[in-house]
Amino acid sequence: MTEFIRCWRSGEPRAKTWREAQLSLLRKEEFSNPYFWAAFTLTGQWQ
């Protein structure tokens, strides 16, 4: 979530930021399990 908020506040689109935050966790072996990132969902206006 911190990665998402940091990038989103810098002006990136929410959907793109969300995807990048999830991919960054997948690349880290200790957080690649969906247990750490799958519970979070992006809702509302994505643009």
Short précis:
With 47 residues, the chain is mainly alpha-helical. 47% of the residues lie in helices and 0% in strands.
Outline the structure in words:
The chain has 47 residues and is an all-alpha fold. It is 47% helix and 0% strand. The protein contains 2 helices and no strands. It is globular. The model has no long low-confidence stretch (mean pLDDT 84).
Work out the helix count. 2
- SS-derived structural category: mainly alpha
Mean pLDDT, to the nearest integer, reads: 84
N-to-C terminal Cα separation, in Å?
Answer: 18 Å
Question: Main β-sheet: number of strands, strand sense, barrel status?
Answer: none
Which features characterize this protein?
single chain; 47 residues; mainly alpha
List the helices and strands and how they pair.
Blueprint: H1 2-9, H2 14-27
Helix pairs in contact: 1-2
